[in-house]
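Hey, sorry to bother you again with one of my protein questions. There's a protein on my desk that I can't quite get my head around. No rush at all, and the record is pasted right below.
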Amino acid sequence: MSGLNQKILIISHGHPDHSKGGAEVAAYNLFKEYQAQGKDALFLARSGESSHGGSVFSSRNNETEVLFHTSIGDWFNLRCAESRHMAEHFSGLLTRFNPEVVHFHHYAHMGLEMIRIVKNTLPEAKIIFTLHEYMAICFNNGQMVKKDSTKLCYESNPVDCSQCFPEKSSADFFMRKQYIQSMFELVDHFISPSHFLIDRYKAWGIAEEKMTMIENGQPKAINSDPRPLASGEKRGRFAFFGQINPFKGIDVILEAFASLSEDLREQVHLDIHGANLHLQEESFQEKVNGLLEELSGVVTMHGSYEPHEMPRLLAECDWMIIPSIWWENSPMVIQEAYNHGRPVISADIGGMAEKIIDGKTGYHFRRGSHQSLASVIEKAVTTDQWSRIHNNIVKPINIEECAHEHFKVLENV
């Protein structure tokens, strides 16, 4: 399977030029590495923008990067809005490119039926699927959190799911699972960036032998040196990277800084790199804006950032904080932090807890508890453990190694 003439189609639910999510970046990085290794690779990314002339496909950057202008019509069953996009246009693209491997990195905004179209059009092609989240398991945006609350779900159940969404019956959820599993049965092998996600999908119904854990590869870091300190300065520069929404726990991190003593507030600073607060519910916006006003001088909101800015932004901080209140899978920012030698403080659940060794490569705090996070922040600043933790960090696999691991899977499928 590793011959230089191998043709690979990588499918993503977004292009990093338009959407900066970890899954989109991971898919694109792998595509570029395949090209660097001499593979005949094509990147197909869904776009929500209208194309010129109304065509289903358009190019981005060059002819090997194609935008698929389509959308989901049925979010409950994850079906495409336009059956013709699949039956004619997508199948036509498959026939023309004729890949030996089709590697899905998502199905959101496109439709699960893409998997069946691949199998029907190219029955000999290998289908690989990287699972980045729990959308197939949970209808609540794949969060596995009870709707309208912060209570965690530990498994899916048709009766429990219908209680979160009373407009749907337990039979509806049973049939949803049957449909999604019928599509997943067509996949030759699944990749997951965390063992935690594998355990969740194994419990849901995917055979363990069909899943392999491969972390998302990172570019080779140029610099991971500690941030230079002024005379008497502590390692008190913290940073948050990600979307501003309730699931990401931005209010938890702000409440933690607000609860610090006045003396400690003078020794710390929080840089928030993220956007979309204006898209959240008004009550959440008011809560966050109120905390930001209270923390004026302690917290700086920088807005969105580009992936190429990450090395510089990490060089300016000492610690990264990931305060998510949902499980997460394998947040790309953890690998990015480790790639540049920055310890991570995170909630003690899911893929976050798996990637961060408490007291060795970072610290855990009790999920959703700003008091617990505040205690960890105080410990991080006052106990002079940063150098020890920094030295414990092992760089994650790079993109070249990541591609090699993927081909090891393909050789055994």
In short: The chain has a mean pLDDT of 92. The chain has two domains: 7-217+398-411, 237-392.
